[in-house]
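From the pipeline queue, job 12 of 40. The input is one protein chain; the requested action is below.

Action: predict structure.
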Amino acid sequence: MRFLALSLRQARYNLVAYLRSARTVVFALAMPVAFLVLFNSVFGGAGKTTSVGGFHLDFIAFFTGGLAAYGVVLGTFTGVLVAIVSAREAGWLKRFRGTPMPPGVFLAGQIGYLSVTELALVVVMLAVSVTCYGLQVHLVSVLAMCCYTLVGVFTFAALALALTAVVTTTEMASSVGPFTVVILSFVSGVFLPPALMPSWLTTLSTYLPLQPLAASMQRALASPSGTGFELRTFLVVAVWGVGAFAVAQRTFTWQPRRR
């Protein structure tokens, strides 16, 4: 209970610090929304559909689900990678480690506040799609997207923690984070429909963590019935998360890396 209370307090502290930077908040929300408007203007339109995993869905549902997943991954993976590497190289992590606060509280606080911000992003994306493009959303679809968001936050936070073992500077983290997310998004059917990509690439992407997440969010918005929950997505994404967390436990350091 003490660990949970401290983690919630640390998450609240991180959230308050995040909200104090208006430019950071606006940029985090504006980029996925801007992509949504841009892609729907170029590729969308009444009656235009595409196929994802056997589901036929409107382009607005395709881009809403895919770009929501993109925003979650960008905010989580890049956010954790930059925050942890910056704090470590500045010597802040070493100071945190020297306090009575349990080591895991700092990391749990990062995941906690990111869960709140990324859930807010998904809600904003849905609101824009519903009000501006007439997307029909069922309550169970919103619930499914929130659950996918939470498992995505955990997995990509764990992947970022594992990557801190080889990323040694803030500048490097600021480059590696967005670059990795953009490349992963292109091969995972976030920006382009899977039908436009070679079959070998679409097959390979199903074993990567972003493709199942994005495809499940897209199908949750496309399905007029059902729950929108897909067990395989939770299994694939969770396996990546657990594996990355295990690597991070062995390689993570609170001390600045020698360069």
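Job complete. The first strand starts at residue 49 and ends at 52.
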